[in-house]
Amino acid sequence: MTKIIHLLKLSVGTDDMADLAAWQADRRAQTEDRMPRHITRMWPKREDEILNGGSIFWVIKGVILCRQPILRLDEYIGGDGIRRCAIVCKPGLIRVAATPKRAFQGWRYLPAADAPADLPAGRQHEEALPPELSKALAAIGVR
């Protein structure tokens, strides 16, 4: 039985979830079949575990705020001829319990047991708090 592993990724340059959603809506950030993708230099070695139900958890301004289920990993050859990995995700962002996370380079594996829980369905469409406030509240144990 294959386990599930998630990916953790900084969303560099975005101020909030709306910024991330807007970036993913740009045609340049999509596959030919119009699915959102993130291109990274390193191909995950634990591909089977990721494709067994894993998600990419997005860190925005030092806080894990949302996730997207990963559909597949596509090969992407850049203009420089270098092979890269396109992480293709299901459209739409799923809000999770705000969890502080320090900055890091690239992406990291996130064990399923350590992944923040999804917010209840009734709270998915509430306006998100600013990341700085979410981080401060999480630091004192309020989510």
Q: Estimate what percentage of residues fall within beta strands.
A: 25-35%
Number of helices: 3
Q: Give the beta-strand count.
A: 7
Largest sheet: 7 strands, mixed
Assign a percent range to the helix content.
10-25%
Number of domains: 1
Global mean pLDDT? 89
Poorly predicted tracts of residues: none
Intertermini distance: 33 Å
Shape: globular
Write the element-wise H/E pattern from the N-terminal end onward. EHEHEEEEEH
* Structural class determined from secondary elements: alpha+beta
Calculate Rg over CA atoms.
Answer: 15 Å
What does this structure look like?
By secondary structure, the chain is an alpha+beta fold. The chain has one domain. Helices cover 15% and strands 35% of the residues. It contains three helices and seven strands. Strand 3 (55-60) and strand 4 form a beta hairpin. The radius of gyration is 15 Å and the shape is globular. It comes from Yoonia vestfoldensis. InterPro entries: UCP032025.
Q: What's the structural blueprint in terms of helices and strands?
A:
Elements: E1 5-10, H1 17-25, E2 37-40, H2 47-50, E3 55-60, E4 63-77, E5 83-89, E6 94-100, E7 107-111, H3 131-139
Parallel strand pairs: 1-3
Antiparallel strand pairs: 1-7, 2-5, 3-4, 4-5, 4-6
Task: Describe the structure in brief.
By secondary structure, the chain is α+β, with helices and mostly antiparallel strands. It has one domain. Helix content is 15%, strand content 35%.
How would you describe this structure in keywords?
7 strands, Lysophospholipase, UCP032025
